[in-house]
Write a structure and sequence with these properties.
One of its GO terms (molecular function) is ATP hydrolysis activity. Pfam families: ABC_tran (PF00005), DrrA1-3_C (PF13732). Residues 4-231 form the ABC transporter domain. Keywords: ATP-binding, Nucleotide-binding, Transport. With 300 residues, the chain is an alpha/beta fold. It is built from nine helices and 13 strands. It has two domains: 4-219, Rossmann fold (3-Layer(aba) Sandwich); 223-284, Alpha-Beta Plaits. The protein has helices at 42-49, 90-100, 105-118, 134-146, 164-179, 191-197, 215-221, 261-274, 287-295, and strands spanning 4-13, 16-26, 31-36, 57-62, 75-78, 152-156, 183-188, 200-205, 208-214, 225-231, 244-250, 253-258, 277-283. A hairpin with a 2-residue loop joins strand 1 and strand 2 (16-26). Helix 2 packs across helix 3 (105-118). The mean pLDDT is 91. Bound molecules: adenosine-5'-triphosphate (ATP). The site of adenosine-5'-triphosphate has 12 residues, from strand 2 and helix 1.
C-alpha cells in the first residue's frame, strides 16, 4: 500500500519543541491538508518525512519503510523556499533534476515539453530562470516536483505566489495525480483550498495537532452549526427550544446557533407547528471558523 504513516513524531531543536507527538496516516489516492499558523511546524514535518531531518522521537514510514535515498525517485517535493539556479536555462535545469530522480534523458525531455505546454509556458524552455517572473519560476519548480511521476507528493505552500488562473491549473494537475492513486500532502494558509481539495486534514498549532480527521468529522466534531429558518409566521418563540445557544432575526429569516443535529430537528418540528416553513437549512462551520477558534484570534 502506498501509505504514508507518522507515529508520535517529535522534533526538538535544543529546548524548543517544533513538532510535538504528531501522528497521521495518508492513504493512496488521498490528499491530506496540513494547516497551521506561521512557525507551527509544517516545514519541519515535511523535512522529516523526506529524511532531511531526523526526528527526535517517533517513526515515519512510506510503504512500511523509512524514506531513504533509494526511494527518493518515488517522491516529489516542492520546498517552501524555492531553489532554482537563476543562471541556468529552464530546460537544462529540469533535465538535470529529472535525471537526478532517475529519469532517462529522453523521457525527461518529453516530460518537460508536456508540462511546459500544460502550464502554458512552452516559450520559456530556453530562457534562464532569472528571466522569469516569480509565479512562472514557481511553475517551473512545480514541474520539477511532478515530472518524474512521483507516488508521494509533498507540496509546501504550492499555491502561494500564483494568480487565480494558475492556481486552478495547478489544482487540476494535483487532482489528476490523486485520481491516478498518488498520495499527496500539502500545507497551506488558505482554508478555501484545503476545503476544496482535502479529504483529510490536520491543524497544528505550536507543533501540536489540535484538529485531525476528515473534513466531515472535523466539521461535525466542532459542535457548532447554524440553522436558518424562514416562515411567514412568528417563529421568535423558537429560541426557547432546548439546545439553542443563540438566535438572531432578520427579514429573510432567523438564524439559530446549535450544537447538534437533534436540536436542528427539534427546531424544524417546532417551526412546522406554527405554519408552513419556506426555508430550512443547516449551515456547517467553515474551516476558517474552525481554524480561528482552535488556533486563536492572535494568529488569524
Ligand atoms: N533548524 C532549526 N533550528 C531551530 N529551530 C528551528 C529550526 N527549524 C525550524 N525551527 C523552528 O521550528 C518552528 C517550526 O518551524 P517550521 O518552519 O516547521 O514552521 P512552518 O509551520 O513551516 O511555518 P511557516 O508557515 O511560517 O512556513 C519555528 O519556530 C522555527 O523557528
Amino acid at each position: 500500500m502506498m501509505t504514508l504513516q507518522l507515529e508520535h513524531v517529535t522534533k526538538r531543536f535544543g529546548d524548543f519543541t517544533a513538532v510535538d507527538d504528531l501522528s497521521l496516516t495518508v492513504g493512496e489516492g488521498t490528499m491530506y491538508g496540513f494547516l497551521g499558523a506561521n512557525g507551527a511546524g509544517k516545514t519541519t514535518t515535511f523535512r522529516m518525512i523526506l529524511g532531511l531531518l531526523t526526528p527526535t522521537g517517533g517513526t515515519i514510514r512510506w510503504k512500511g519503510k523509512p524514506i531513504t535515498y533509494s526511494t527518493s525517485h518515488e517522491i516529489g517535493y516542492l520546498p517552501e523556499e524555492r531553489g532554482l539556479y537563476p543562471k541556468m536555462k529552464v530546460e537544462d535545469q529540469l533535465s538535470f533534476l529529472g535525471e537526478l530522480r532517475g529519469m532517462k534523458k529522453n523521457d525527461a525531455k518529453a516530460a518537460i515539453r508536456k508540462w511546459l505546454e500544460r502550464f502554458e509556458v512552452p516559450q520559456y524552455q530556453s530562457k534562464k530562470v532569472e528571466e522569469l517572473s516569480k509565479g512562472n519560476q514557481q511553475k517551473i519548480q512545480v514541474i520539477a516536483s511532478l515530472m518524474h511521476n512521483p507516488e508521494l507528493l509533498i507540496l509546501d505552500e504550492p499555491f502561494s505566489g500564483l494568480d487565480p488562473v494558475n492556481v486552478e491549473m495547478l489544482k487540476g494537475a494535483v487532482k489528476e495525480f490523486r485520481d491516478a492513486g498518488a498520495t499527496i500532502v500539502f500545507s497551506s494558509h488558505r482554508m478555501d483550498h484545503v476545503e476544496e481539495l482535502c479529504e483529510q486534514l490536520s491543524i497544528i498549532d505550536h507543533g501540536k495537532q489540535v484538529v485531525k480527521g476528515s473534513l466531515r468529522e472535523v466539521k461535525r466534531s466542532f459542535g457548532r452549526q447554524n440553522v436558518r429558518i424562514r416562515s411567514d409566521y412568528d417563529i421568535t418563540g423558537l429560541q426557547a427550544v432546548s439546545g439553542v445557544r443563540n438566535s438572531s432575526y432578520a427579514l429573510d429569516g432567523a438564524v439559530f446557533q446549535v450544537a447538534d443535529d437533534e436540536t436542528a430537528d427539534r427546531l424544524l418540528q417546532e417551526a412546522l407547528k406554527s405554519g408552513p416553513v419556506r426555508h430550512f437549512s443547516i449551515e456547517e462551520p467553515s474551516l476558517q471558523d474552525i481554524f480561528i477558534a482552535k488556533v486563536g484570534a492572535e494568529h488569524a
